[in-house]
Design goal:
CATH topology: Immunoglobulin-like
Largest sheet: 5 strands, antiparallel
Number of domains: 1
Number of strands: 5
Oligomer: single chain
Order of helices and strands: EEHEEE
Length: 82
């Protein structure tokens, strides 16, 4: 079960090492309701100028599970900006 007490996060960085401690930009993802859990989710995030001017960024989501101390992360994705 996902924790409803805190947001989950979408992290963006310049390397494949991107997580809660290593990121250049982050946005919150609040737990969806059960009816929309399998639907695609569109996110917007403001990138710092040095990232926005680059060719690509790396990104991943981190979720907090009830009863689990650490966040659980998706695989890192390389996202082309141009």
């Amino acid at each position: 079960m996902l924790s409803g007490h805190e947001p989950h996060h979408f992290y963006v960085g310049t390397t494949t090492i991107v997580d809660a401690n290593n990121f250049a930009a982050v946005t919150d993802i609040w737990e969806p309701n059960a009816e929309t859990l399998s639907a695609p989710l569109n996110l917007s995030i403001g990138l710092p100028a040095d990232l926005a001017g680059g060719a690509y960024v790396y990104a991943r989501a981190g979720v907090k599970m009830a009863g689990v101390q650490e966040m659980i992360y998706t695989p890192v994705q390389k996202i082309a900006l141009r």
